[in-house]
Amino acid sequence: MYDATRVTRAGVPEAVQGEAFLQGPVFASAFHAAGDPSAVPYTYARFNNPTWNQFEQALSELEGGEAVVFPSGMAAVASIFGTLLRPGDTLVLPSDSYYTSRVIAQGYLAEMGVRVQLASTRGNAQLAHLEGAKLLWLESPSNPGLEVCDIRMLAEAAHAQGVLVAVDNTTPTMLGQKPLELGADFSVASATKALTGHSDLVLGYVAAKDSTLLSKVRAWRTQQGAIPGPMEVWMAHRSLGTLALRLERQCNNALAIAHFLSRRPEVLEVRYPGLPEDPAHSIAVRQMSYYGPVVSFTLASREQAEKFLANCKLVYEATSFGGLHTSAERRARWSGDIISEGFIRFSAGCEDIRDLLADLEQALATLS
Ligand SMILES: *Cc1c(COP(=O)(O)O)cnc(C)c1O
Hints:
Blueprint: H1 3-9, H2 50-63, E1 66-70, H3 73-84, E2 90-94, H4 99-111, E3 115-119, E4 135-139, H5 151-160, E5 164-168, H6 173-176, E6 186-190, E7 204-208, H7 211-224, H8 230-240, H9 243-262, E8 267-271, H10 281-287, E9 294-299, H11 302-311, E10 316-317, E11 327-330, E12 343-347, H12 353-365
Parallel strand pairs: 2-3, 2-4, 4-5, 5-6, 10-11
Antiparallel strand pairs: 1-7, 6-7, 8-9, 9-12, 11-12
Helix pairs in contact: 2-8, 3-4, 3-7, 11-12
Protein name: Cystathionine gamma-lyase
GO molecular function, one term: pyridoxal phosphate binding
Keywords: Lyase, Pyridoxal phosphate
């Protein structure tokens, strides 16, 4: 089956007369479990929950590896760092990765004696730092710069030196890019963004082909206790069924917007891996099936960016991305990313492209 079909059925049980298509959330802390606990699938809800299992089954089918769900993307990221890295180990991290991943690495991990080696996503620059490393962390396309690296090539080079590879796959989702098929050991993502796409929950997950590696991640969740609520997990599963529908519309809108912006004199630079002239396109076209909902572009100044956002009528000024409502923000209002003051991270939603382009047109016109 094709992905657009598979998302509608992923993790959904076989049809049973008189039962719902997808079982509702199971709210429990303890389950009936008399006698030998190893003979009972559910005992205590920090260990396991049927609503997680349904969703993890869905993620497994789509990722091509076993999955463990976490209460946020960061909890998922931290579980890989926490299970693999020990004092003296080296982590190779993108210098342009999601800011909080760098905060954990350069703060907590470095303080505990992990060597953190930063290199940019662009140009596969992390390749030069693999010697003696324990874990290669990739993020492609990177958030918010939308740089792309060659996942297959980097994973092969890393494995040749005994280095494990994790890919933060948040921006494209597993429908846009499949890290495990490209050779990574771990695919990790925030499900808060495009994967669930309704801006109504925070969630994350880790998937891996090797069940020994993944069982360590699962034990980490059980023992550290960062577990997701069943309601959020069920909502995520419900949203997953429309992922292909949403992503197709959002990516078509993103490409049309990127084309539009690239012809506007007010815009200094546009980045979108789906644009044929984008520096990331030649690699992206080989490893991605959707280029994602995010377009990044740069206006001349902080004032221009603020004015543009204030004058958009259809674009929510908000952080996060990937939702069905188009949103954007001037990214430099947060610290941590190496970007200019006029840099805008724009997330294309599911609206009619004619309305979006008209809104952008009138908002840009107020700048000159
Ligand atoms: C949002 C994000 C995260 C963190 O996810 P949360 O669900 O906010 O914890 C990690 N990586 C990337 C690339 C993200 O965009």
